[in-house]
Design goal:
2 domains, globular, 16 helices, Rossmann fold, about 45% helix, 12 strands, six-stranded parallel sheet, alpha/beta
Length: about 375
């Protein structure tokens, strides 16, 4: 088979978006051209990235570059990009990948102009030949919310958008690289170690996690706590409060220096906890499961699709109860590893390669 020529558009080139794109570009046998922007100010990326990226792609076109496929994330308005980029690249079949969707994202403060972000998701999906979603939950919630969103229009309510998008959509999970975790086998200490491996954002609900472990500490249980998310230039007040309530139980706060250090840190933990109010997949919890941790996740969002009932909890009281059981006798390392193995690059690459080749064969 001939090598595909793929133009990738990622305006938010950081975190899981970067890890997935870099992993695909380094493993799928194709000629990749990556147009990226730093992972800053996501709202401005959604508003303006199409202008910048269309100009960059036009320059590539003038230099004689040709492409078989466009692979875009939802932080670029694909419809705007195609309208601005010129006829040759606009005619290239396109895939848009939904790591998340703005129709169900829990904004703390919503103004009317914020409607632009879900609308960007909708117009990108309409423009694409194929829409890929990281979970069935993400896909189904997106499609279900479209009719209600369209009713926000003051008039001229387009019909059939949800059905049109659903018909060209499928689920393909985001893969992760297990190499660093394979090089860091579980190394448990004497006390149960509980890790919260998430970025410090309101939608990950760190306060709920600290509330749960503080209750355990007040009961006198002996355990350790690791917060393995992003590093902080200014320590949040909730961290300072947690230090006061947990004392020496809080043994690590902040993002390790590199992926190897992160893998070693996860390998030293027994239980990984999510308290997220918003999660479309959750690579951090999958990686923690692969590293040997036993996952405890809310019984909501995308989690029921990925984790069995024994690894889910309904509310804060049940989270505390589950941790109370696990702290004295943590599960053996690797109890959830088989769950996570389904999401490695080796497991998922054939699916990506097949979809890329199928869509690239489409003629507009």
């Amino acid at each position: 088979m001939s090598r595909l020529r793929i133009l990738a558009l990622e305006p938010y080139y950081g975190g899981s978006h970067r890890a997935v794109l870099d992993g695909l570009a380094s493993r799928i046998d194709a000629d990749w051209t990556l147009l990226t922007m730093p992972a800053r100010k996501w709202k401005w990326r959604m508003r303006g990235a199409a202008i910048t990226m269309a100009a960059e792609a036009q320059e590539l076109d003038r230099e004689g570059a040709t492409f078989d496929l466009v692979f875009a994330s939802t932080f670029v308005n694909l419809a705007e990009f195609r309208g601005l980029v010129g006829s040759r690249i606009a005619a290239v079949p396109a895939i848009v990948y939904f790591h998340e969707n703005q129709l169900v994202y829990p904004n703390r403060h919503t103004a009317e102009w914020d409607f632009q972000f879900p609308l960007t998701n909708i117009t990108s999906a309409l423009s694409a030949e194929r829409c890929l979603f990281n979970t069935r939950w993400n896909l189904e919630r997106f499609v279900a919310e479209i009719p209600g969103f369209i009713r926000e229009f003051p008039d001229h309510h387009p019909k059939g958008l949800a059905e049109t998008i659903a018909a060209k959509s499928q689920v393909l999970a985001p893969p992760f690289d297990p190499g660093a975790f394979d090089a860091a086998p579980p190394s448990r200490g004497q006390r149960c170690r509980i890790v919260w491996p998430h970025r410090w954002e309101h939608d990950k609900n760190p306060d709920a996690f600290f509330s749960a472990v503080a209750r355990l500490a007040e009961e006198g249980l002996d355990f350790e706590v690791v917060v393995a998310g992003q590093a902080f230039s200014d320590v949040p007040e909730s961290i300072l409060a947690a230090e006061a309530r947990l004392g020496e139980r809080l043994v690590h706060v902040g993002e390790p220096g590199d992926r190897s250090a992160y893998a070693r840190l996860l390998a030293s933990c027994d239980v990984a906890v999510s308290t997220a109010d918003n999660e479309f997949f959750g690579i951090a919890m999958v990686e923690a499961s692969y590293a040997g941790c036993f996952p405890l996740v809310p019984d909501r969002l995308a989690y029921p699709e990925l984790y069995p009932p024994a690894m889910r909890y309904r509310d804060g009281d049940e989270l505390v109860a589950r941790l109370r059981e696990l702290v004295p006798s943590p599960p053996a390392p690797g109890a959830a590893r088989s769950l996570a193995e389904r999401y490695t690059f080796d497991a998922l690459l054939p699916g990506y390669d097949a979809v890329f080749r199928e869509v690239a064969a489409v003629t507009r």
